[in-house]
Amino acid sequence: MAVELAGGVYWVGAIDWNVRNFHGYSTHLGTTYNAYLVVDDKIALIDTVKAPFYEEMLRRVKEILDPGDIDYVISNHVEMDHSGSLPMMMKEAAKAELITTEKFGESGLKDTFHADWECTPVRKGDEISLGRRKLVFIPTPMLHWPDSMATYLAGENLLFSMDAFGQHIATSQRFDEEVGLDVIMPEAAKYYANILMPFGDLIVKALDSLSEFKIEMIAPSHGVIWRSHVSEIVDAYAAWGRGDTRKKVVVIYDTMWGSTERMAQALVEGITGAGAEVKLFNLSKTDRSDVIKDVQDARALLIGSPTLNNGMFPTVADFLCYFKGLKPRGKVGAAFGSHGWAGGAVKQIEEELAKAGVEVIKSDLAVKFVPDEDAIKKCVDFARNVANRLG
Ligand code: FEO
Fold first, then answer.
1. How far apart are the C-alpha atoms of 97 and 99, rounded to whole Å?
2. Is 23 considered catalytic here?
3. What element of type H or E holds 55?
4. Entry pTM
5. How many CA atoms lie within 13 A of 245 on its CB side?
6. Residues at CB less than 6 angstroms from ligand 1
7. Which of 81, 92, 102, 261 is catalytic?
8. Active-site residue 229, yes or no?
9. Nearest CA to ligand 1 atom 1
10. Residue 131: left if φ>0, alpha if ψ -120 to 50, beta else—which one?
11. Nearest ligand 1 atom to alpha carbon 166
Protein backbone atom coordinates (compact mmCIF):
# COMPACT_ATOMS: atom_id res chain seq x y z
CA MET A 1 0.00 0.00 0.00
CA ALA A 2 1.12 3.56 -0.69
CA VAL A 3 1.61 5.50 2.55
CA GLU A 4 0.83 9.22 2.91
CA LEU A 5 3.63 11.22 4.59
CA ALA A 6 2.02 14.63 4.31
CA GLY A 7 -0.92 16.05 2.35
CA GLY A 8 -0.59 14.61 -1.16
CA VAL A 9 2.89 13.19 -0.53
CA TYR A 10 3.14 9.41 -0.72
CA TRP A 11 5.74 6.69 -0.25
CA VAL A 12 5.42 4.46 -3.30
CA GLY A 13 8.64 2.45 -2.94
CA ALA A 14 9.35 -1.26 -2.60
CA ILE A 15 10.42 -3.55 0.24
CA ASP A 16 13.29 -5.99 -0.37
CA TRP A 17 12.84 -8.41 2.53
CA ASN A 18 15.42 -10.92 1.35
CA VAL A 19 18.51 -9.02 0.21
CA ARG A 20 21.41 -10.08 2.41
CA ASN A 21 24.33 -8.58 0.50
CA PHE A 22 24.32 -5.06 -0.89
CA HIS A 23 27.53 -4.54 -2.85
CA GLY A 24 29.59 -6.14 -0.11
CA TYR A 25 27.51 -4.82 2.81
CA SER A 26 25.66 -7.43 4.87
CA THR A 27 22.00 -6.47 5.00
CA HIS A 28 20.80 -8.81 7.74
CA LEU A 29 17.48 -6.95 7.94
CA GLY A 30 16.89 -6.46 4.19
CA THR A 31 16.19 -2.99 2.84
CA THR A 32 13.70 -0.76 1.08
CA TYR A 33 14.02 1.27 -2.12
CA ASN A 34 12.04 4.39 -1.42
CA ALA A 35 10.29 6.35 -4.15
CA TYR A 36 7.93 9.23 -3.40
CA LEU A 37 5.04 10.77 -5.24
CA VAL A 38 4.16 14.45 -4.72
CA VAL A 39 0.68 15.33 -5.94
CA ASP A 40 -0.10 19.01 -6.41
CA ASP A 41 -1.32 20.91 -9.49
CA LYS A 42 1.67 19.19 -11.03
CA ILE A 43 2.78 15.68 -10.11
CA ALA A 44 6.36 14.65 -9.35
CA LEU A 45 7.80 11.19 -8.81
CA ILE A 46 10.99 11.32 -6.78
CA ASP A 47 13.26 8.42 -7.78
CA THR A 48 12.26 4.94 -8.76
CA VAL A 49 13.30 1.53 -7.38
CA LYS A 50 15.66 -1.33 -8.25
CA ALA A 51 14.50 -2.86 -11.54
CA PRO A 52 13.09 -6.18 -10.21
CA PHE A 53 10.78 -4.17 -7.94
CA TYR A 54 9.27 -1.99 -10.68
CA GLU A 55 5.85 -3.67 -10.64
CA GLU A 56 5.62 -3.27 -6.87
CA MET A 57 6.29 0.47 -7.19
CA LEU A 58 3.92 0.82 -10.14
CA ARG A 59 1.10 -0.82 -8.17
CA ARG A 60 1.54 1.76 -5.43
CA VAL A 61 1.63 4.66 -7.88
CA LYS A 62 -1.56 3.38 -9.53
CA GLU A 63 -3.35 3.38 -6.16
CA ILE A 64 -2.99 7.19 -6.28
CA LEU A 65 -3.15 8.16 -9.95
CA ASP A 66 -2.53 7.22 -13.54
CA PRO A 67 1.27 7.19 -14.08
CA GLY A 68 0.67 8.84 -17.45
CA ASP A 69 -0.29 11.98 -15.48
CA ILE A 70 3.15 12.37 -13.89
CA ASP A 71 4.74 15.70 -14.91
CA TYR A 72 8.22 15.30 -13.45
CA VAL A 73 10.46 12.35 -12.65
CA ILE A 74 13.28 13.48 -10.36
CA SER A 75 16.40 11.33 -10.49
CA ASN A 76 18.20 12.22 -7.27
CA HIS A 77 20.88 9.57 -7.88
CA VAL A 78 21.94 7.42 -10.82
CA GLU A 79 22.85 4.28 -8.85
CA MET A 80 20.65 1.46 -10.05
CA ASP A 81 18.93 0.71 -6.75
CA HIS A 82 17.12 4.00 -7.45
CA SER A 83 17.27 4.43 -11.21
CA GLY A 84 16.82 0.79 -12.24
CA SER A 85 13.12 1.24 -13.02
CA LEU A 86 13.58 4.46 -15.02
CA PRO A 87 13.48 2.78 -18.45
CA MET A 88 10.05 1.28 -17.70
CA MET A 89 8.76 4.34 -15.83
CA MET A 90 9.79 6.80 -18.55
CA LYS A 91 7.66 4.79 -20.97
CA GLU A 92 4.72 4.71 -18.57
CA ALA A 93 5.03 8.40 -17.62
CA ALA A 94 5.31 9.38 -21.26
CA LYS A 95 4.89 13.14 -20.83
CA ALA A 96 7.16 13.45 -17.78
CA GLU A 97 10.20 15.70 -17.75
CA LEU A 98 13.27 13.93 -16.34
CA ILE A 99 15.23 16.04 -13.88
CA THR A 100 18.72 15.27 -12.64
CA THR A 101 21.87 17.04 -11.48
CA GLU A 102 23.88 19.05 -13.94
CA LYS A 103 27.02 17.44 -12.59
CA PHE A 104 27.19 13.75 -13.54
CA GLY A 105 23.43 13.15 -13.38
CA GLU A 106 22.77 13.51 -17.07
CA SER A 107 26.00 11.79 -18.15
CA GLY A 108 25.53 9.08 -15.51
CA LEU A 109 22.04 8.23 -16.79
CA LYS A 110 23.31 8.24 -20.36
CA ASP A 111 26.26 5.96 -19.57
CA THR A 112 24.00 3.60 -17.62
CA PHE A 113 20.91 3.34 -19.82
CA HIS A 114 22.07 4.57 -23.25
CA ALA A 115 18.57 5.98 -23.74
CA ASP A 116 17.61 9.10 -25.67
CA TRP A 117 15.87 10.77 -22.73
CA GLU A 118 15.95 14.54 -22.64
CA CYS A 119 17.09 15.54 -19.19
CA THR A 120 16.62 18.87 -17.48
CA PRO A 121 19.80 19.44 -15.47
CA VAL A 122 19.49 21.35 -12.19
CA ARG A 123 21.94 23.16 -9.97
CA LYS A 124 22.01 24.19 -6.32
CA GLY A 125 18.95 26.26 -5.46
CA ASP A 126 17.03 25.61 -8.70
CA GLU A 127 13.30 25.28 -8.09
CA ILE A 128 10.22 23.82 -9.73
CA SER A 129 6.76 25.00 -8.79
CA LEU A 130 4.20 22.23 -8.43
CA GLY A 131 1.37 24.69 -7.78
CA ARG A 132 0.81 25.27 -4.09
CA ARG A 133 4.26 23.93 -3.23
CA LYS A 134 7.68 23.91 -4.83
CA LEU A 135 10.64 21.58 -5.06
CA VAL A 136 14.12 22.97 -4.37
CA PHE A 137 17.19 21.04 -5.51
CA ILE A 138 20.27 20.71 -3.31
CA PRO A 139 23.19 18.78 -4.85
CA THR A 140 25.03 16.65 -2.28
CA PRO A 141 27.99 15.43 -4.36
CA MET A 142 29.53 12.09 -3.34
CA LEU A 143 26.70 11.24 -0.93
CA HIS A 144 27.03 8.73 -2.29
CA TRP A 145 27.94 9.28 -5.97
CA PRO A 146 29.04 12.47 -7.75
CA ASP A 147 25.51 13.07 -9.07
CA SER A 148 23.67 12.72 -5.76
CA MET A 149 21.24 15.42 -4.71
CA ALA A 150 18.53 16.02 -2.16
CA THR A 151 15.16 17.53 -3.05
CA TYR A 152 13.33 19.78 -0.59
CA LEU A 153 9.58 20.16 -0.62
CA ALA A 154 8.96 23.71 0.57
CA GLY A 155 5.64 24.15 2.30
CA GLU A 156 5.90 20.74 3.95
CA ASN A 157 9.46 21.21 5.34
CA LEU A 158 10.22 17.78 3.95
CA LEU A 159 13.64 16.72 2.69
CA PHE A 160 13.98 13.83 0.26
CA SER A 161 17.57 13.17 1.29
CA MET A 162 18.53 10.35 -1.08
CA ASP A 163 21.12 7.92 0.38
CA ALA A 164 22.03 10.21 3.29
CA PHE A 165 20.18 9.39 6.56
CA GLY A 166 19.23 5.96 5.17
CA GLN A 167 19.23 2.60 6.90
CA HIS A 168 19.02 -0.87 5.43
CA ILE A 169 15.87 -2.19 7.10
CA ALA A 170 12.94 -3.99 5.51
CA THR A 171 9.83 -3.33 7.52
CA SER A 172 6.13 -2.90 6.97
CA GLN A 173 6.35 0.30 9.05
CA ARG A 174 7.38 3.51 7.32
CA PHE A 175 8.20 5.90 10.17
CA ASP A 176 11.00 6.12 12.72
CA GLU A 177 8.90 6.03 15.90
CA GLU A 178 6.99 2.98 14.67
CA VAL A 179 10.20 0.95 14.51
CA GLY A 180 12.00 2.60 17.43
CA LEU A 181 15.26 4.50 17.73
CA ASP A 182 16.93 1.51 19.42
CA VAL A 183 16.53 -0.47 16.18
CA ILE A 184 17.08 2.18 13.54
CA MET A 185 19.99 4.15 15.00
CA PRO A 186 22.44 1.20 14.96
CA GLU A 187 21.38 0.52 11.35
CA ALA A 188 21.84 4.19 10.44
CA ALA A 189 25.30 4.05 12.05
CA LYS A 190 26.23 0.92 10.11
CA TYR A 191 24.97 2.53 6.89
CA TYR A 192 27.01 5.68 7.52
CA ALA A 193 30.17 3.75 8.42
CA ASN A 194 30.05 1.53 5.34
CA ILE A 195 28.79 3.98 2.74
CA LEU A 196 29.48 7.54 3.81
CA MET A 197 32.56 7.33 6.06
CA PRO A 198 34.95 8.43 3.29
CA PHE A 199 32.97 11.63 2.81
CA GLY A 200 32.94 13.12 6.33
CA ASP A 201 33.99 16.59 5.17
CA LEU A 202 31.26 16.58 2.52
CA ILE A 203 28.70 15.54 5.13
CA VAL A 204 29.69 18.55 7.23
CA LYS A 205 29.30 20.77 4.12
CA ALA A 206 25.95 19.22 3.21
CA LEU A 207 24.63 19.77 6.75
CA ASP A 208 25.73 23.38 6.43
CA SER A 209 23.84 23.75 3.11
CA LEU A 210 20.77 22.15 4.66
CA SER A 211 20.84 24.38 7.74
CA GLU A 212 19.12 27.16 5.77
CA PHE A 213 16.04 24.95 5.36
CA LYS A 214 13.49 24.18 8.03
CA ILE A 215 13.34 20.39 8.08
CA GLU A 216 10.55 18.60 9.92
CA MET A 217 10.73 15.31 8.06
CA ILE A 218 13.56 13.47 6.30
CA ALA A 219 12.56 10.89 3.70
CA PRO A 220 15.67 8.93 2.70
CA SER A 221 16.02 6.41 -0.10
CA HIS A 222 16.41 3.41 2.19
CA GLY A 223 14.66 2.44 5.40
CA VAL A 224 12.21 4.42 7.48
CA ILE A 225 11.26 8.09 7.30
CA TRP A 226 12.52 10.35 10.08
CA ARG A 227 9.75 12.50 11.57
CA SER A 228 9.95 11.98 15.35
CA HIS A 229 13.75 11.82 15.69
CA VAL A 230 14.97 14.31 13.08
CA SER A 231 17.28 16.15 15.49
CA GLU A 232 18.80 12.88 16.73
CA ILE A 233 19.79 11.68 13.25
CA VAL A 234 21.05 15.14 12.19
CA ASP A 235 23.18 15.37 15.37
CA ALA A 236 24.49 11.85 14.76
CA TYR A 237 25.48 12.77 11.19
CA ALA A 238 27.27 15.87 12.47
CA ALA A 239 29.30 13.72 14.89
CA TRP A 240 30.04 11.02 12.31
CA GLY A 241 30.96 13.64 9.69
CA ARG A 242 33.44 15.23 12.11
CA GLY A 243 34.87 11.75 12.73
CA ASP A 244 34.23 11.86 16.48
CA THR A 245 35.68 8.86 18.31
CA ARG A 246 35.59 7.69 21.89
CA LYS A 247 37.82 5.72 24.27
CA LYS A 248 37.10 2.47 22.54
CA VAL A 249 39.36 -0.21 21.07
CA VAL A 250 38.34 -2.79 18.47
CA VAL A 251 40.33 -6.03 18.37
CA ILE A 252 39.99 -7.68 14.97
CA TYR A 253 41.64 -10.96 14.07
CA ASP A 254 41.57 -14.36 12.48
CA THR A 255 43.26 -17.47 13.76
CA MET A 256 44.64 -20.78 12.45
CA TRP A 257 45.29 -22.95 15.52
CA GLY A 258 44.08 -20.64 18.28
CA SER A 259 47.33 -18.79 19.06
CA THR A 260 46.40 -15.44 17.52
CA GLU A 261 43.00 -15.80 19.18
CA ARG A 262 44.63 -16.34 22.57
CA MET A 263 46.65 -13.15 22.01
CA ALA A 264 43.47 -11.27 21.01
CA GLN A 265 41.78 -12.34 24.24
CA ALA A 266 44.80 -11.16 26.26
CA LEU A 267 44.59 -7.78 24.52
CA VAL A 268 40.93 -7.52 25.49
CA GLU A 269 41.93 -8.22 29.10
CA GLY A 270 44.46 -5.39 29.04
CA ILE A 271 42.02 -2.92 27.49
CA THR A 272 39.30 -3.83 29.97
CA GLY A 273 41.78 -3.43 32.84
CA ALA A 274 42.49 0.11 31.65
CA GLY A 275 38.78 0.95 31.76
CA ALA A 276 38.30 1.43 28.01
CA GLU A 277 35.43 0.06 25.96
CA VAL A 278 36.42 -2.90 23.81
CA LYS A 279 34.91 -5.03 21.04
CA LEU A 280 36.38 -8.31 19.71
CA PHE A 281 35.71 -9.69 16.24
CA ASN A 282 36.88 -12.87 14.53
CA LEU A 283 36.77 -12.10 10.81
CA SER A 284 35.76 -15.68 9.99
CA LYS A 285 32.61 -15.23 12.06
CA THR A 286 31.60 -11.59 11.56
CA ASP A 287 31.07 -9.83 8.27
CA ARG A 288 33.46 -6.97 7.52
CA SER A 289 30.60 -4.46 7.26
CA ASP A 290 29.42 -5.28 10.78
CA VAL A 291 32.96 -4.84 12.09
CA ILE A 292 33.26 -1.46 10.34
CA LYS A 293 30.23 -0.16 12.22
CA ASP A 294 32.19 -0.58 15.45
CA VAL A 295 35.39 0.80 13.95
CA GLN A 296 33.68 4.10 13.02
CA ASP A 297 33.65 5.55 16.54
CA ALA A 298 36.67 3.66 17.96
CA ARG A 299 39.92 5.49 18.67
CA ALA A 300 42.14 2.40 18.27
CA LEU A 301 42.28 -0.86 16.32
CA LEU A 302 44.40 -3.89 17.12
CA ILE A 303 44.58 -6.23 14.14
CA GLY A 304 45.83 -9.81 14.43
CA SER A 305 46.65 -12.48 11.88
CA PRO A 306 48.55 -15.72 11.76
CA THR A 307 51.17 -15.86 9.02
CA LEU A 308 50.07 -17.92 6.02
CA ASN A 309 52.46 -18.28 3.09
CA ASN A 310 54.59 -15.40 4.44
CA GLY A 311 51.63 -13.02 4.63
CA MET A 312 48.29 -12.15 6.21
CA PHE A 313 45.30 -14.46 6.34
CA PRO A 314 42.97 -13.71 3.38
CA THR A 315 40.17 -12.57 5.72
CA VAL A 316 42.48 -10.00 7.31
CA ALA A 317 43.71 -8.78 3.91
CA ASP A 318 40.08 -8.46 2.79
CA PHE A 319 39.19 -6.42 5.86
CA LEU A 320 42.16 -4.08 5.53
CA CYS A 321 41.44 -3.49 1.83
CA TYR A 322 37.84 -2.56 2.67
CA PHE A 323 38.89 -0.45 5.68
CA LYS A 324 41.47 1.51 3.67
CA GLY A 325 38.85 2.40 1.03
CA LEU A 326 36.68 3.97 3.72
CA LYS A 327 39.42 6.53 4.49
CA PRO A 328 39.27 6.35 8.30
CA ARG A 329 40.45 9.35 10.29
CA GLY A 330 41.92 9.98 13.72
CA LYS A 331 42.77 6.41 14.71
CA VAL A 332 45.80 4.62 16.14
CA GLY A 333 46.46 0.97 15.43
CA ALA A 334 48.79 -1.94 16.03
CA ALA A 335 49.33 -5.46 14.73
CA PHE A 336 49.83 -8.81 16.40
CA GLY A 337 49.90 -12.47 15.47
CA SER A 338 51.44 -15.90 15.65
CA HIS A 339 53.65 -17.53 13.05
CA GLY A 340 55.53 -20.78 12.56
CA TRP A 341 58.98 -20.86 10.98
CA ALA A 342 58.74 -17.45 9.32
CA GLY A 343 56.69 -14.35 10.09
CA GLY A 344 55.31 -11.71 7.75
CA ALA A 345 51.72 -10.97 8.70
CA VAL A 346 52.44 -8.44 11.46
CA LYS A 347 54.70 -6.35 9.22
CA GLN A 348 52.15 -6.47 6.39
CA ILE A 349 49.33 -5.35 8.68
CA GLU A 350 51.42 -2.43 9.94
CA GLU A 351 52.12 -1.38 6.35
CA GLU A 352 48.45 -1.55 5.41
CA LEU A 353 47.36 0.37 8.51
CA ALA A 354 49.88 3.12 7.66
CA LYS A 355 48.55 3.26 4.08
CA ALA A 356 45.03 3.64 5.52
CA GLY A 357 46.16 6.75 7.42
CA VAL A 358 46.25 5.06 10.83
CA GLU A 359 48.99 6.10 13.28
CA VAL A 360 50.81 2.80 13.81
CA ILE A 361 52.10 1.84 17.24
CA LYS A 362 54.87 -0.77 16.96
CA SER A 363 53.85 -3.69 19.12
CA ASP A 364 56.56 -6.37 19.06
CA LEU A 365 53.68 -8.87 19.36
CA ALA A 366 54.80 -11.43 16.76
CA VAL A 367 54.84 -14.79 18.55
CA LYS A 368 56.38 -18.04 17.32
CA PHE A 369 53.83 -20.89 17.32
CA VAL A 370 51.96 -20.82 20.67
CA PRO A 371 52.18 -17.85 23.07
CA ASP A 372 53.61 -18.70 26.53
CA GLU A 373 52.75 -16.88 29.76
CA ASP A 374 55.36 -14.17 29.09
CA ALA A 375 53.91 -13.51 25.63
CA ILE A 376 50.39 -13.32 27.05
CA LYS A 377 51.51 -10.86 29.74
CA LYS A 378 53.19 -8.79 27.03
CA CYS A 379 49.85 -8.63 25.17
CA VAL A 380 47.97 -7.57 28.30
CA ASP A 381 50.54 -4.87 29.12
CA PHE A 382 50.67 -3.58 25.55
CA ALA A 383 46.89 -3.27 25.28
CA ARG A 384 46.69 -1.51 28.65
CA ASN A 385 49.27 1.03 27.46
CA VAL A 386 47.38 1.60 24.20
CA ALA A 387 44.11 2.11 26.08
CA ASN A 388 45.76 4.48 28.55
CA ARG A 389 47.02 6.75 25.80
CA LEU A 390 43.52 7.18 24.34
CA GLY A 391 42.65 9.86 26.90
FE1 FEO B 1 21.11 3.66 -2.48
FE2 FEO B 1 24.04 5.08 -3.74
O3 FEO B 1 22.41 4.10 -3.78
1. 6
2. yes
3. helix 54-64
4. 0.96
5. 21
6. 77, 79, 81-82, 144-145, 163, 221-222
7. 81
8. no
9. 163
10. left
11. 1
126 has catalytic annotation: no
Fill in the DSSP letter of residue 68: G
Give the helix/strand (H/E) hosting 87. helix 86-92
Q: Give the three-state DSSP class for 75.
A: coil
- 82, 222, 229, 339: the catalytic one is 222
CA distance 361 to 340: 23
168 is catalytic: no
In the chain, the largest separation of any two C-alpha atoms, in whole Å, equals 77
What is the sign of the dihedral through the CA atoms of 278, 284, 288 and 289?
A: negative
Q: Among the residues of 115-229, which ranges form H helices?
A: 176-179, 181-191, 200-210
Active site residue 254: no
Cα 265 to Cα 261: distance, rounded to the nearest angstrom: 6
Task: Give the number of the atom of ligand 1 that is nearest the alpha carbon of residue 145.
Answer: 2
- Inter-residue contact 202 to 148 (CB < 8 Å): no
| The residue type at 150 | A
Question: What is the Å distance from ligand 1's center to 365 Cα?
Answer: 41
Q: Quick check: is 163 catalytic? A: yes
Catalytic residue among 16, 40, 47, 79: 79
Cβ-Cβ contacts under 8 Å for 147 (sequence gap 6 or more):
77, 78, 100, 101, 103, 104, 105, 108, 141
- pLDDT by 10s per residue, the chain, length 391: 999 999 999 999 999 999 999 988 999 999 999 999 999 999 999 999 999 999 999 999 999 999 999 999 999 999 999 999 999 999 999 999 999 999 899 999 999 999 999 999 999 999 999 999 999 999 999 998 999 999 999 999 999 999 999 999 999 999 999 999 999 999 999 999 999 999 999 999 999 999 999 999 999 999 999 999 999 999 999 999 999 999 999 999 999 999 999 999 999 999 999 999 999 999 999 999 999 999 999 999 999 999 999 999 999 999 999 999 999 999 999 999 999 999 999 999 999 999 999 999 999 999 999 999 999 999 999 999 999 999 8
Q: For residues 86 and 28, what is the distance between their CA atoms, to the nearest angstrom?
A: 27
Q: How far apart are CA 40 and CA 46, in angstroms?
A: 14
